[in-house]
């Protein structure tokens, strides 16, 4: 089994404009008999799942997402060597089957930049490529970057890939890591907190020996 999620730590990188992450001791083991940590973080901290409610008015919230939607064989599409801010087009997806698994993960290698300024300049999935994957059966889109859409440090309200995936009642998993060396077809599981909201931090794993 391989962990595909970033650890949640105070001061870790977040999407521009999201709440900062602060883990503060609330109870002390020696003083209070138990250690408890107070958490301040956004629902889209670290490796996390976007529920449809993230960008779709009236969309499903995270507590209404079944675990079965986030567990199964995934198609891993590798697109290495991309330039900063590149767009991943249909041609970059390679030879796709007529029907793809419900979970598709796009590995750009950008997870290595998480926590740096360059993470903001990640490649993004083209909307036509997203539509094609959705048409062929993708329900969950996973990426190893801050977003499948371009990230604008100054803020943006345009999320075309989110509109395709979440608008179709699908799910997006962002900030995956540890994808190196995994086979092109791999069983994975993503386990988000059951928050009654627009998304939730998650533990993601690949079921490999």
From TrEMBL:
InterPro entries: KFase/CYL, KFase_sf
Taxonomic superkingdom: Bacteria
Descriptive protein name: Kynurenine formamidase
């Amino acid at each position: 089994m391989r962990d595909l999620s970033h650890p949640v730590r105070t001061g870790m990188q977040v999407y521009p404009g999201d709440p900062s992450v602060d883990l503060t001791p609330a109870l002390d083991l020696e003083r209070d008999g138990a250690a408890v940590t107070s958490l301040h973080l956004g629902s889209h901290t670290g490796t996390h799942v976007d529920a449809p409610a993230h960008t779709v008015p009236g969309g499903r919230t995270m507590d209404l997402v079944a675990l079965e939607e986030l567990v199964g064989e995934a198609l891993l599409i590798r697109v290495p060597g991309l330039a900063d801010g590149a767009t991943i087009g249909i041609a970059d997806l390679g030879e796709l089957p007529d029907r793809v698994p419900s979970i598709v993960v796009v590995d750009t290698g950008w997870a290595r930049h998480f926590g740096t300024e360059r993470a903001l300049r990640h490649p993004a999935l083209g909307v036509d490529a997203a539509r094609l994957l959705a048409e062929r059966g993708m329900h969950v889109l996973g990426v190893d970057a801050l977003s499948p859409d371009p990230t604008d440090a100054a803020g943006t309200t345009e999320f075309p890939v989110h509109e395709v995936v979440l608008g179709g009642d699908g799910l997006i998993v962002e900030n995956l890591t540890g994808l190196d060396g995994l086979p092109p077809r791999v069983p994975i599981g993503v386990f988000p907190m059951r928050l009654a909201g627009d998304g939730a931090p998650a533990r993601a794993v690949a079921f490999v020996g």
